[in-house]
Amino acid sequence: MTLKSLNFTLLVVNLEEETLLPLADELNRKRLMAPDFFAQTPMVVNIDNEALNIDFLKLQNTVEENGFFLAGITGNISDKQKQQAGQYSIAVLHSSRKPATKKVVVDEKQSVSKQDSVISVESEELTSFSDVKAKVHIGRVRSGQQIYAKECDLVISGDVGAGAEVIADGSIHIYGTLRGKALAGAMGNTNAAIFCQTLQPELVSIAGVYKLSEALPEDAWSTSCSVFLEDQKLVFSNLNKI
Predict the structure, then answer these.
(1) Higher model confidence: residue 32 or residue 135?
(2) What count of other Cβ atoms lies within 10 Å of the Cβ of residue 105?
(3) Tens of pLDDT along 121-162?
(4) Could you tell me if 176 and 154 are in contact, meaning their C-beta atoms sit under 8 angstroms apart?
(5) Helix and strand tally (H, E) in the chain?
(6) Using 50, 70 and 90 to split pLDDT, how confident is the model at 72?
(7) Domain extents for the chain?
(8) Under CATH, what is the fold of the domain 11-86?
(9) 163: left (phi over 0), alpha (psi -120 to 50) or beta
């Protein structure tokens, strides 16, 4: 038997309080964006407060009830917390680098249609795909289909129909009309972008920041458009005006 050391990119969620309701809400919203993609996705919970009295069985159940898999916990964890987590076979992980933090507070007083909806998830960002070829799909992506480009860009030569999902760890390029969902930077790459010839989406998302169709700027609808992140907000740019 040969032992090998491998690196994996995992979603990391920051737990700052003992109540798990905000965590459950965030995971549920993320899962609803792309149910098939996030099904049984492994994630790590980061705990930086030794004083937190966490119900680790409830934490484990909360994660699993929302379709994710709890791979372990990390952070500034006390011996007591480690012992309690160990009672439920929850691993304690040690990262060689600090996760890239994206802490965003959504103002609940604002209408969803007037703001970017943000899932405050921490992740180790995939920032470069220069040495990885893009995944190319030729033809229409039909309702119910899902295409995922792991650790690379995704190029679609055709329309993305309503009810279809195109997902990439890098950027997404659509040479056609986007009527379904497009999720770029799926594992936290904030440098990812979405480009399409005609923008009519159900949802667009970059690194967890998303907008539904009804929240899109009116001047972006049905245009040849690029979508990118700037100061944790989605920016829509008409490609014909560049």
Answers:
(1) 135
(2) 7
(3) 334 433 333 344 578 888 899 999 999 998 888 989 899 999
(4) no
(5) 4, 16
(6) confident
(7) 11-86, 129-241
(8) Alpha-Beta Plaits (3.30.70)
(9) left
